[in-house]
Amino acid sequence: MQIKVLAACLNKQKILALFTTVIPTIDNRITAEVTDLAHVLYRAALAKPDILLLEHVEGEAENSWNVLAQLERVSAGTRVLMLCDVCTPLMIIGFIQRGASGCLLKSCEPSLYAKAVATVHQGEPWFGRTALLQALRSQIEAEPVVTASLLEDQELLTPREREIVVLLGSALSNKEIARQLSISDKTVKTHLHHIYVKLHKSGRYKVFLSNFPVAANARELGTPTRFQ
Question: Does 225 have pLDDT greater than 60?
Answer without folding.
Answer: no
